[in-house]
Amino acid sequence: MYQILPLDQPEAKLIQTCLPATYTKLSSQSSFTAMSPNVQEKLKVVIVGAGFCGLTAAIECQLRGMHPILVEAYPGASSHGDLLDFVPNAGRVFDSWDDGKVGEKLLAAGVNRAKTLDFYNQDNVLLKSDPWPQGIDLKGTFAGHRGAMHEIVYNYAKQIGVEMRFKSKVVEYLDSDDERGVVISGTGEKILGDVVLACDGPKSLARSQLLGLPESRVNSGYAIFRAFFQITDEMLKDPFMAELTRKDQDTTRFWVGKDMHGFIYTWNEGRDCAWVLTHLDDADIQESWSFPARKQDVLFYLNQAGFPEVWRRVLALTPEDGIVDYKLVWRDPLTTWLSPSKKCAVMGDAAHCHLPTSANGACQAVEDAATVAICLEKSQGDVALALQVFERVRFNRSHVIHQASISTRNIYHKNDWSLEMVKKNPDSLIMPLLDWIMDFDCQKVAEENYDRLAQDVLLGKPGTIEELSIPAGGNYDSMNLT
């Protein structure tokens, strides 16, 4: 567990004065190890939100011998959504489950037979083609329908016996010496535990109730139209849809123009199609962020940006009830993710709500979840220590990726992309999935740094959270336009 220090060292003496009551001296020649108040009882982890962050946290805690209780307002696994991507910094976590079987299922369900991601401008000029990660057999890379992927992860949580409480909307968070947990709407039932992990998304109630933050949702100035539908034989009679669709290969295409960019994907032997269109939007978002979209509104933005005919044809074939207008909300970075007691934490979108242009928001949520489970396990019951170490492992990395989503969007939208422009700046028109992001092993980093960071916490090492946290590991300088 912790690094053993001779008791005559100043650092060891200082640790003695900092130790919580749950630490027990082993002998005159050893340091200290953490013991839970009752080592026979499993640590009870209340997790709010059954998205990928909450599910991953619950699975990892269950696999590490804890008792997670997953609380979710919706009635079950989500079947909704369009396309979602995971790359190896998160995908390797999924691959580690059930001897690789979960990863195999995610791969089979997704966009796994594309060869390239093709970049076009608003005039439909092919600017460049980059290798599609799954097309080169990059392990831990998954892309597919959000609902289908969510169900696979949910089914694994169910398989290993995670306690899940659906149809349970949280209306209050509890964080006192006597009670730590949540209160459920309607019934007033309290679900209590030793630690609370709030994975309750960008509309997080925990941010206000646990962290004491005022509501700070700010319209980013952009929104996305998103759609998913199954392609019929009748649709394939349209030459534009037929050109996008192949039985032996998936299609992944990206268009970029003034204040707009969009993706169209077809996969599953040409049976599934998803598209996403990011555009300027200054609508009031005080009441809701997601609305049914009208085709005429999508067409207005396509015409305004001068996007090519293929987009109009795909829009025309998309079922009207299959399009969502989702307002992109920006939240400023937090100064801490922990409640005053240090025994409750916000994670995922509740802590760092990424714009889609980070291309790593869901992955960062999975990194949070896998990391916190390791920290809780290694702390042996000292929840406050575990969460402080968790924050120091994750803070700088998630912050840099979170902030970069704005600069990446501006690179896409504020330039007149042409073949000449791409030749001059080949590293600017890319998906921002740099090696330092994808090659990162969050579980290895947590394991290797836990003892050192725990000692920093116990010693009260001075500094800001940025100074005390592990460096981000890289930056986006290579994308800067010359």
Rg is: 24 Å
**Morphology call:** globular
CATH homology group of the largest domain:
FAD/NAD(P)-binding domain
Unreliable runs, pLDDT <50, ≥5 residues? 1-40
Count of discrete alpha- or pi-helical segments spanning 4 or more residues:
15
Biggest sheet strand line-up: 7-6-15-16-17-14-19-18
- Give the CA-CA distance, first to last residue: 48 Å
Describe the structure.
By secondary structure, the chain is an alpha/beta fold. It folds into two domains: 44-114 and 139-216 and 331-479, FAD/NAD(P)-binding domain; 218-330, D-Amino Acid Oxidase, Chain A, domain 2 (2-Layer Sandwich). The chain has helices at residues 10-18, 52-63, 88-95, 101-108, 146-159, 206-209, 239-244, 295-305, 309-317, 361-379, 383-413, 419-424, 435-438, 442-459, 465-468; strands spanning 23-25, 32-34, 44-48, 67-71, 83-86, 116-121, 126-131, 142-145, 163-165, 170-175, 180-184, 190-192, 195-198, 218-230, 251-257, 260-267, 272-280, 290-292, 323-330, 344-346. The strands form five sheets. The chain has an eight-stranded mixed beta sheet with strand order 7-6-15-16-17-14-19-18, with helices on one face. β10 (170-175) and β11 form a beta hairpin. The model is unreliable at 1-40 (pLDDT under 50).
Describe the protein's topology.
Blueprint (H helix, E strand, L loop, with lengths): L9 H9 L4 E3 L6 E3 L9 E5 L3 H12 L3 E5 L11 E4 L1 H8 L5 H8 L7 E6 L4 E6 L10 E4 H14 L3 E3 L4 E6 L4 E5 L5 E3 L2 E4 L7 H4 L8 E13 L8 H6 L6 E7 L2 E8 L4 E9 L9 E3 L2 H11 L3 H9 L5 E8 L13 E3 L14 H19 L3 H31 L5 H6 L10 H4 L3 H18 L5 H4 L14
Parallel strand pairs: 3-4, 3-13, 4-9, 6-15, 13-20
Antiparallel strand pairs: 1-2, 5-8, 6-7, 10-11, 11-12, 14-17, 14-19, 15-16, 16-17, 18-19
